[in-house]
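lol so apparently i was supposed to do this last week
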Amino acid sequence: MSLRIVLLGPPGAGKGTQAERLVQHLKIPRIVTGDLLRAAVKNKTDLGQKAQTYMNRGELVPDELVVALIREQLSQLNSQRGFILDGFPRNIQQASALEQLTEIDLALLIDLPREEVIRRLSARRMCERCERIYNLVYQPPKREGICDACQGLLVQRSDDKPDVVAKRYDIQYNQDAQPLVESYRKRSVLVTIDGEGTIEEVFERILRVIRSYK
Ligand code: AMP
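anyway here it is w/ adenosine monophosphate bound
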């Protein structure tokens, strides 16, 4: 089965965690714009230097930069095998650009209320060395402040601070992403699932959707 999937949902809905599981289950590649951009910032590439200010403020990086990044990533894939796009598209302009590059079979929206988004993201920590994600409430590390996998230090992403989180939700999700959700709904590829509950419960809901495509 080849499925070209776009993952949608507010930050903190568990897109990353669920996408990792889905990659293992479907054996298809995943393209994560947030990770690619963070790597560019860390490596101080041209793209990273341009993207950094927007990211620190919790704003979207300009479309032309992100679209160029996705174009390059998709050109390196054998799209016949399918893929998961995680973090792209984020607005209607990016969705139109994507349409020129590939078709989409499923737009999977993992939904979560605003208060829960803020609660989850404020408790999120990331290993500064290997970038593994933890949550102080749901998935705490074995030793406080230390990564289980590589012993690196756990830090809070600058855009996971509560005021920036609220802005990411209100602007990036409510304002920019809603027209996008509507456009996928009109194309009949949108499926919404409830993002509340445990990681396993949410993944089971996703598998139910995926099975209906087989
Ligand atoms: P994320 O890890 O997906 O929450 O992304 C972190 C940050 O990277 C966002 O707050 C944006 O500043 C930027 N970013 C990620 N994906 C995109 C995108 N598709 N378009 C514009 N900016 C993006």
